[in-house]
Amino acid sequence: MVVLVYGCSDQTNLSSKSSESTDWELVILDSIQVDYLGSVGGGDFRNGKGVFFNFQENKLIEFDSTGKIHYERSYPTDGPGKVLYPTQLRYTDDGRLFAASFVGWLYELNRDLTLKQEITLPFPSQANDGGGFFRSLDFWNDSLISYYPGRDGANPYDPYFIRDHFLLEKIDSKTGGSVPLIKIPSTSRYSSDKFFERPWIQFGISGTRLHLALSNEPMIHVFDLNDGGSYLHTVNFKPSKFLDNGEHQEKYQYISGSRMLDGAIRQLFVTEKGTVVYYEEGIDEEIFVQNELNLPKNFPKYKDFQKQVLKIISPDTILSNEIIVPYRIGRIMNIEGLDKPFYALRDDDFVGEEQEYITFYKLLLVKK
């Protein structure tokens, strides 16, 4: 797919294409520059404003759709007012901002990004990784929904964690009280007693439906939040290429990244009119070994041997075409609706340009 470039004035015509088509393309409408020099380690964008996290400074930066910075806030890592690595960021519809660190701390922030409160659960999270642009924090019906493993001492690195435990917590942000939510359905191979590569868990919510994905299975599992998170159905989004290293002979084997690279869901966006899956295809063993892609110095070469793809699943489970995303487009901040523009980080390393600002592409999904 070729990414088309249109001026902003063309947006109305683009959005008015036939509603019957299942073929889509990705259009770059514009770009904005945020006058900040630093890395982006997680973020969100909703209702005309965005926020991103800079790891080196333990800082959040909030900006608007013109690129203007409204607030910058660095946080102490100990003592009063500490906020530790708030990489997961989610705005609510009414403008509240919640954050989670990659090791489980949960926060609510004021509109000027100062700390409003730390949300403390009765038990600690046992997670030691994750965060960033993974989608594992959301808000529904006055409750936070979070991937927060640790209830009853559950270890998320146990090979049967996904099979044996609830995967999410529904959290009262005022009290820290929580109830467990969502069990993996039998449609997932992780419900069995076999061993597989450890996946990342992501989810999103639209209305009363929660959609959950494990990163190395091409499936979306759908649950009803109005019925305590009961399982409804599973959709296989049928990628034409999504490599997988299969069943392991013993636990704690890590094959992906050492001998080959699994296909992986990188981001998941759930909207009223459809779910968008952003995934990478993976790299087979022969290419991986020949090019020594297990070495950190060669990690940037991954982009030479696999594609990154968007695919849309309609509410009635009709699948779109595969929309190839060029690598100059990096992680997506959020997709609020299939008919709304959204923002994605420009990959300056891939483009080969060093700038003293951060560029976000303004994008739109358009039916052909």
UniProtKB/TrEMBL annotation:
<protein>
    <recommendedName>
        <fullName>TolB-like 6-blade propeller-like</fullName>
    </recommendedName>
</protein>
